[in-house]
Amino acid sequence: MSRPDLNLLITLNVLLAEGSVARAGQRLRLSSSAMSRSLARLREATGDPLLVRAGRGLVPTPRAIELREQVHQLVQDAEAVLRPAKKLNLQQLVREFTLRTSEGFVENFGPALIARVSEEAPGVRLCFVLKPNKDSAPLRDGLVDLETGVVAKTIGPEVRAQALFRDRFVGVARLGHPLSKGRITPSRYVSCGHIAVSRPGLEMGAIDEALEPLGLERKIVTTVGGFSTALALARTSDLIATVPERHTGVLREGMHSFCLPVATPEFTVSLLWHPRMDADPAHRWLRDCLREVCLSQLPRSAQARGQNS
To answer: How many CB atoms within 10 Å of residue 40?
Structure first.
């Protein structure tokens, strides 16, 4: 069975509205002969004459009257599908977005993001889930709307990424710790017990690589699965935690933070999403909100780096 020509719906809609082949042709900018051929095709497709002569004009058949509203609605719906999306009305938007983020991100940037979203779009709800690895499958499968983190080599090639800010590792100890006084040298740094954070995709080897030429090595006393756990241990012991500075700003309150005594590279924290969401107006709005909140929450020196990255 041959597939029907859906273009005929447009012709039928105009013919039923005008009740005249000539007027329908004028609206569609077609000649009378072209319109007559289209009417013949419509009659063949529907199995009904649709318009029949009555005196000098044409009148619709019962089947044509039955189809009039249905065809009109179909054409309107099709035109709506092919038009650009309507301008986003944030005050009427009702939607839930799931964001997958690393430890510390919600604590540092969540309050400002939630406040802004609540003010601009009160019907939007944000759902934050912890990011245990760098697998991009949740983005690809639509389980997650947005993700933050360091772009890994294993990330799917189809994932979009945009830099949010630069970050670096810092050392953290309890208040009153011996390292809270005096100059911190590599030797003093490694003389303390250290907490290692072990997570898939987390690269902290740069610290140990920087210490190796000096003949020094950290003494790892314990290994934990996240930054908050590492900081909780460091807060109540003499152990040292090494964590991302800007990701853990709130988590480090009431503790002594210090620059590492060896040079380690900074890294870029990015915003990740799947390309199918590129043109979605609500998703694009949320991406803008998150980028602007991250920028506003950073020190001015970091803002300059974030804008240039």
So the answer is: 10
CB 223 within 8 A of CB 196: yes
Q: Please, what are the averages of pLDDT over each run of 10 residues along the chain (309 residues)?
A: 78 89 88 89 90 85 90 86 80 96 89 96 96 82 92 75 93 96 95 86 74 94 92 96 92 95 92 91 96 79 38
CB atoms within 10 A of CB 112: 16
CATH hierarchy code of domain 7-81: 1.10.10.10
Nearest to 291, CA basis, from 129, 99, 136: 99
Asked if 17 and 72 count as a contact pair (C-beta separation under 8 A), the reply is yes
Q: Which fold has domain 169-265?
A: D-Maltodextrin-Binding Protein; domain 2 (3.40.190)
Q: What is the pTM of this model?
A: 0.69
Q: Using alpha carbons only, what angle is made at residue 222 by residues 220 and 227, rounded to the nearest 5 degrees?
A: 100
